[in-house]
Design goal:
Blueprint (H helix, E strand, L loop, with lengths): L2 H18 L8 H21 L11 H4 L7 H21 L11 H11 L1 H11 L3 H20 L8 H24 L9
Length: 190
């Protein structure tokens, strides 16, 4: 199979998944196509890079293009979710505040963020990008758990809401950097 054909298959599958999930209905057609391109190519790149280069795996387009599980679209959606949160917080006047770790999940996120430079160095040293891919998936998973347990925009304590917002911004920055190192872009919206 030619790479161009494989890429087109994943872009088409991404369009189908986006429609199936009811995402992007408010986007214009050109922007929807751009998002589908980013998601399809992100699925392809992450599917390949998440595995140790010395091991075999079965490439499954359907599985790798899902918005849940260990996939590129899952990571991209995590980034889009944070971008949306930051946009809504700005509109609502929620201000950033210094991060204060109170919950165990916040501590886990902070420790995961802190390990980033070690992960990048190790992945580069061993020439094994799956190490970075694993870190990015772990960070997105932790943030997803945090996001569902914390109502950032509805939090009455402004200091706490600001702390959560700052932590979210740090997660987004690391997702963007880590995924860019893997050649994957995060759309602005989905």
């Amino acid at each position: 199979m030619r790479l161009a054909d494989l890429m087109q298959m994943l872009i088409t599958e991404a369009e189908r998944r986006i429609d199936e999930a009811g995402m992007g209905a408010e986007l214009e057609q050109g922007e929807r196509e751009k998002v589908a391109d980013m998601v399809g190519l992100g699925a392809l790149k992450f599917a390949d890079l998440q595995h140790d280069r010395e091991s075999d795996y079965i490439f499954n387009i359907s599985r790798f293009s899902k918005f849940e599980g260990r996939t590129g679209p899952y990571l991209q959606y995590a980034g889009v979710r944070i971008k949306s949160l930051l946009f809504k917080a700005e509109k609502a006047g929620v201000a950033f505040a210094p991060v204060h770790i109170e919950k165990a999940i916040e501590r886990q996120i902070a420790l995961t963020l802190d390990r980033f430079h070690l992960v990048v160095e190790r992945a580069a040293e061993l020439r094994k990008p799956h190490i970075l891919a694993e870190h990015m998936f772990a960070l997105a998973g932790l943030y997803s758990q945090f996001y569902h347990d914390s109502r950032i925009l509805n939090e009455e304590d402004s200091t706490r809401a600001g702390s959560w917002l700052s932590l979210s911004k740090a997660v987004l920055a690391q997702l963007e950097l880590g995924l860019s190192l893997l050649g994957i872009d995060i759309p602005e919206r989905m």
